Amino acid sequence: MYRVFLSWRYLLTRRTNWIGVGGIFVAVGALILILSIMSGFLESSRAMLRGDLSDLAIAPSQEGRGTDGSSASSTRTPAPLLERLFADERVEAASPRLVWYAQAAGDGRRTERLMAGSAGDLSAIQLIGVELRTPALLAEAAAAPLLAALGLPLVPTAGRSADGRARDEFSTTEFFHSLRREPLRGMRVQNPLLPFERPRSYRTDGRPAAAIVMGESLMSGLSLVPGDEVEVVTILPSPDGSVTSANRRFVVAGSFRTGAHALDLERIYMDRAELEDLLSGHREYSEILVRTKDYDEYGAALKVDLERDFLAAGLIAGGYGRNGEIVAFPGQVKTWEDSRQNLIGAIKNERVLMAIMLSLILVVSGFTIFSILTMMVTEKRRDIGILAAVGATPRGIMSTFLLIGFWNAFLGTLLGAAGGILGATYINDIEIWLSDLLGVTIFNREIYYFDEIPSDVEPMTVLWIAAGAFTSTLLFSAIPAWRAARVDPLVALRNQ
């Protein structure tokens, strides 16, 4: 009992102990706060990097070998792939998509801006033809005002089969949410359920142009507004090996915003049939997008199974492996993480490096505890001698000084954890207050395309930090406590 009493008394009466408590408080609070922000950035960046990517994408190669060694090539129609996909219960939705690259040109005033990239070179624009269940969506669009008045969420459900599975872009990607997201500079489409509906402001003297939806950054940078016409120019391969050009005028229906500046700067969406017609039937589709019922549970396994089954059916191409077996060419079936693995890995590495660097603060606070306890052992030699003289064992004396380190760790960790969690929870309020106080913008929301500073407090991370603080403090307290236990009571009393 005396050990707890003495350790607590030494802690309260010696003010330098509070320096150690403060050091642990700062270390633990900073670790929790910054790692929570980094975790929030990781999750938000994952969502931003994913953009409109589906869970899986199937892009068959044009040539290769099947499992029987015969020549294999992708089918011109997506029907065989879709049929096999919907035979798997893990697939919730799938839709074909046609992707092509082109240039855009407007009237004489805008042509140069439309054609030139940021460095003055020609900038390619990605044309994406998507599949939407227009007749069914028309019915939903008509009912949308009534649903909104009743307070029901506007979620596209048209085009789904009896088992709830669908074959349209809205069901496989986040395109619908990109259309509804609050624009920063661009202009929304009239009705997100019908994005390729011509704007009411559109007037034409001749044949009405088909509608397209542009990325917000692209539309804003080109000073376009809904109702403006642009001409899309592309090239097509010919059977004789030469190339021909194709062009067509489209009307801008509005913008979408994914939150990823690079994607919003280079993408134009249109109806797949319109893009296929522009390409003169050269291709029906480029890839099949797949959404699983549970990506975390089924994603990786479904990729492996689909790759094996499609290769066996000759729907994707393969070549000879090292042992002479037929293996699928890489990249034909891939998850969305495969497409962004380098960037996601970089963010994870930054989080780990940040944790390692910030952990040095715990080491510094541990050295502080070591210095404080070392000085205390030197100053309390007479007290140690008296304790030993009245019957205290070396183990009891060592426990007393270890308890001082324990109290430092307990108070510092408790206050630091509370401060770090509160700071991470109210980081945006703190940032706004500091910005107003200092007169500077600490977090520029336009740079990161985040509406607020992301923060994600992970309970296991908090527990690991608390355990690390306790362990390091007790380790640094062990040496002074051991020295206190080895003090000779006769020498200690004689020298006082």
3D architecture notes:
This protein has helices spanning 2-13, 16-50, 79-85, 111-115, 134-149, 169-172, 175-180, 216-221, 261-264, 272-278, 295-312, 336-339, 341-379, 381-389, 394-425, 427-438, 445-448, 459-485, 489-494; strands spanning 56-58, 64-65, 71-72, 91-105, 125-130, 210-215, 229-237, 243-256, 267-271, 287-292, 318-320, 326-328, 333-335. The chain has two domains: 2-48 and 342-494, no CATH class; 91-292, no CATH class. Residues 64-74 and 108-122 have low confidence and may be disordered. It has 496 residues and is of the alpha+beta class. It is built from 19 helices and 13 strands. It has a six-stranded mixed β-barrel.
Spatial sequence of strands, sheet with the most strands: 4-5-9-6-8-7
| Helix content, binned percent | 40-55%
Structural class: alpha+beta
Query: Could you report the average pLDDT, rounded to the nearest whole number?
Result: 78
Question: Quick one: biggest sheet?
Answer: 6 strands, mixed, barrel
Overall tally of structural domains:
2
Q: Quick one: overall form?
A: elongated
Report the end-to-end length measured between terminal Cα atoms.
27 Å
Percentage of residues in strands: 15-25%
Poorly predicted regions are: 64-74, 108-122
The gyration radius over C-alpha positions equals: 33 Å
Q: How many DSSP H or I helices?
A: 19
Task: Report the count of strand segments.
Answer: 13
